[in-house]
């Protein structure tokens, strides 16, 4: 092609005029043979005034494209914009995956072919590094999920401990994914994967809240058992029963701790368990202190039956020998060579009757039976006690009599109810009913005394006793007396076994207040 310049302006006189752009000749890159040398020649003037030719050769410069490695987003694909941004080149217009090729799917580094289109419409195929990490990050995701599933399934962890542990797992998984993205070789990706599996599995998921709470319960049990062992006033049987009560309370507390789901629930179950163990407060059965009774030689105060078993059952295992003796000091301080043991024949007979009646009962509240068994054990212990005094004997005999009266009254009530007779027909003798209620009140006072702590139940029991003893209740509806009996039976059951009772002390107090108000 030829160009000429006139008046400072260039023009094409021969060839393709489109290559002229201002004062520059622009040759299309795609139309050039990159190995061809381009030569130019220029002259000035014309004809005889034409200057000599000035020549110069040009070599087409090498075209270089720099690329940035592409990383496939986790569970996504790169976009055309991602491809174009990966190419460091001027006058680029668009980029796409070369026709006939596809993206690799296996983990690692790959070379992919892109087709780049320039602003002048020319195109060029270039190679780009393409990094796939889907499988690597998927492995990390699965490791994290498995660890978090195990945490959720661990019932020894509280909700707060589970959340803290899962947050640590997520943190380790996040660091592992960043390490995969930062890796520049396949070996680097593999190392990031392996480190992730190790670090995720090593996240500490040891429970602390529940084991620590149980440890406190165990400490409380040890303290309670030591106190029981140091109580020299208790028999071996009483110690065993007390320790069993402590163990039952501890087991119940630990079960509540296991079932707790939050730190607050664990603390509540622990505190309730420790309080339950504190409330057991085991006490030895009543053993009255010896009150020596003098035995004059003139026979004026003879031992009526001290050497005789009036019921004729000399072979019973619970009756101590009537000839058992031990030295005691007299109340007046004067020693005597003649000593006596108390006459237990009446108590022995009453205990046997109580034992027999307990075996033959039908339809009596289990709560009354359980309370009566406590008194039966006290009576049997009194029979075995060679140091039992007159005062102790009198007290124990009264208790056993009250228990018997209670059972008789309860059984009579059951029998009368079975006959379905009405009050107008005299379905239940008034005296029997009142006697039954008074006997239940006696049981109640006995059980209250064993608790060794003050309670409004004691006050209400005494008031009820006074009303029944002193008041004229002949006109009281039998149904009301049945309500009184039911309230007293529930109170006896509660005090006999507070831990397993379906009622609370406050409920029973309100019930007794209600029936007392009606009786008055």
UniProtKB/TrEMBL annotation:
Composition bias type Low complexity, residue spans: 296-316
One Pfam family of this chain: DUF1542
Residue stretches of biased makeup (Polar residues): 259-281
Segments for region (Disordered): 221-344, 408-427
Biased amino acid composition, Basic and acidic residues: 230-257, 408-426
TM stretches of this protein: 428-449
Ranges annotated as biased composition (Pro residues): 283-295
Domain annotation DUF1542: ranges: 137-206, 210-284
InterPro entries: DUF1542
UniProt keyword list: Membrane, Transmembrane, Transmembrane helix
Protein name as annotated: Surface anchored protein
Organism expressing this protein natively: Streptococcus pneumoniae
